[in-house]
């Protein structure tokens, strides 16, 4: 009989881990407490629209995530820019764009930055100097992770106007954090890997279909092809070490056993499931914190935005995406407004958000001022990501625990990446590699009472943001 790996959690990390374990020859069972796969990347139907819970974006340098799309047979369900172009809008219909040219990095952004109208000439020159300095930082250095990007910005003469017009456009959506609060190392990783080393790395991609078509429907088909046994609405309630592996108790269902278990669940749920023998400090997991994302969904009776997406400056609107076609809307226009690090907005009522953001959209999009709003609703992800504050890397666990064969996956683990789809896939791959290594040992040594392996933190690696 093939030896069994049990994956708890059917999000992106769990799916990636299950596929890799199955390819490695293991018998794989995946448990998901909900009635769908996809974790935090999912869709639902509202007022006849197919709606994503939030806008998810990846970059060309997200190699692990893009490989997962191929594995799922979903590569044709996304679009990827041929060349990075970020339209930037300000009230009064003013526009600019950040766009790469054909020069090698880091010169590929020089012309666009030199013409960027939302910074004065002096601030453009200062931003260019700061980008050069950021490119030289060793983001793998733990000491750098303990430093604040806000302090670094002040040391490099980046004032509030420069932060609002440039740095926030990149840092807030990728880290889900105000850039002034963020770890210097994590910001440096984002810029170096996504923008400053490879000219094509930052080209933007996103789904052309509802997210559940990719991370639920296509994922289930791919898992079935791989021979993975998927059980929906099966929530694990406890993981108990035993002599030949682990016993996993499942709410309202028979207990399951496996030589190896991968917990691919959010950190708060992992903390509840981890047995004491795993020696994971759940207090450290809690100190990672949580940062919310709020999405506003607005349907107009006519087209008001002539771009697939745009960023906003001098406005509360951070990013806005045209989701008309993916939602199945035949007339009018459906816009999704994505608000990252949305602690203030999380506490606001839907009506208060409507009063703040509909006028703000009308200031950015002149055609919206004369359009009728057919639908307005709000989705909230209270714990969308951990907080990439200074020192956060030291709190992120590796894939391994002190129990050989009990592993962790999820974008909160120490992949080196922010809490993104790319980070989730990489965490699944790290857990799967450790799972297959555990299965390669003689029976009885993969879990339970076997000698503990040292927990290993994966190296920060070059790759992508999502």
Name the descriptors.
single chain; 466 residues; alpha/beta; FAD/NAD(P)-binding domain; Polyamine Oxidase, Chain A, domain 2; 3 domains; seven-stranded mixed sheet; five-stranded parallel sheet
If you had to describe this structure to a student in words, what would you say it looks like?
The chain is an alpha/beta fold and 466 residues long. The chain folds into three domains: 4-40 and 211-288 and 390-439, FAD/NAD(P)-binding domain, CATH 3.50.50; 43-80 and 290-385, Polyamine Oxidase, Chain A, domain 2 (Alpha-Beta Complex); 97-202. It contains 15 helices and 20 strands. The protein has helices spanning 12-23, 63-72, 110-114, 121-135, 142-145, 149-155, 160-175, 184-196, 211-225, 267-273, 282-287, 324-327, 343-346, 350-364, 421-439, and strands spanning 4-8, 27-32, 43-46, 49-52, 57-59, 78-80, 85-90, 94-99, 204-207, 229-232, 236-242, 245-250, 253-258, 260-263, 291-300, 309-312, 319-322, 333-340, 373-385, 406-408. The strands form five sheets. The protein has a seven-stranded mixed sheet. Strand 7 (85-90) and strand 8 form a beta hairpin. Helix 1 (12-23) runs parallel beside helix 15, helix 2 packs across helix 15 and helix 7 (160-175) packs across helix 8. The longest helix is centred in the C-terminal third of the chain and has 19 residues, at 421-439. It is globular and about 65 Å long.
